[in-house]
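User: Teach me something about this protein's shape.
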Amino acid sequence: MALVSLAQPVALGKGKLLASGMIASVLLTTGVMLAIEKHPDPQNACAVLRGHRHGIHHLAFTPDGKILASVGGMTDLEGEVRLWDTATGRARATLPGHAGAVYAVVFSPDGTVLATAGEDGTLRMWEVDSGCLRLMLPGHGERVSWLAFSADGTTLASAGPDWRVRLWDPATGRERAALRGFGPITFSPDGRYLAFLVEDARWICLWDVAAGQESTRLHEPGGCISSVAYSPDGQSLAVAHEEQAVSLWSLVTRKVRRTVHVPGGAVNAVTFSPDGRELALVVQDGTVQLWNAATGEQTAHLAGHRGAVETVAFAPDGRSLASGSYDTTVRLWRSATVGDHIEAE
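Assistant: First, the predicted structure itself:
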């Protein structure tokens, strides 16, 4: 979805600008009508995707960036799984079946399979093109909060509050291993290691998947860990914790090389941009912050959600990112120069 400035009338792709001023309408060639609102602060601008009834817990893009998946819901209601066309902002599918909130979503590396998990303790695997349910796994018997695919797509990892990190064969649904630990979880870019938490949520275990054994442990001195992310080159690990900071670990030296102190409260989630230059942080004050991973300097402050932000994800090309909130909206932001506000009704 394009982001445009309304300083003067402009074209949006092959669409047509029908009016200009504080509010305008754009008619895309797809027939989708977008209401464009001139935002008072040009640093806070995004496309807003509406359709969820309850808060959004997690987001994921397909590897080609054409589809965005958002999941959410409440404990005592049917979970919500939605797929969005990122070119038009139109919802392309809703996948029903989860009982209770859905907390985790991830695409397979080839983009053909979507895995979801949540309050009902099940892992569900869907065919992206058809929206059909391929497999349903019993999971952990209670809430599943984290999912991760290995780089080659041959292993799906899951974790919940039951102190078990489970490794699955996504083709057959067979459980390969149950490791003692809990989330957050993330695979290294080459799929060799799986990072997860152990002990008192201040230790990170790097598990050698092929060898089936622990490679090393890292002790986070900053406090209880909320989020972990590998850099795209696999040389660094970003660790968000309760002390309003993110630690950047060198996986070569096994030492913290930089600590980023974050204004606005605790950091609930962290992720690297695809080129590894930026960190996107979900902060307790309801904002998304971008930081330069090399210098530790803040580069952008994205405000606009009207509720707590739960999740953030970069598009694969790195030119935009998505955030999801308890305000029931998904917002798509340009990661470099944020322009004006586009709202899809």
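Now, about its shape. The CA atoms of residues 23 and 244 lie 38 Å apart. Confidence is low (pLDDT under 50) at residues 1-44, 337-345. If you'd like, I can walk through any region in more detail.
User: That's plenty for now, thanks!
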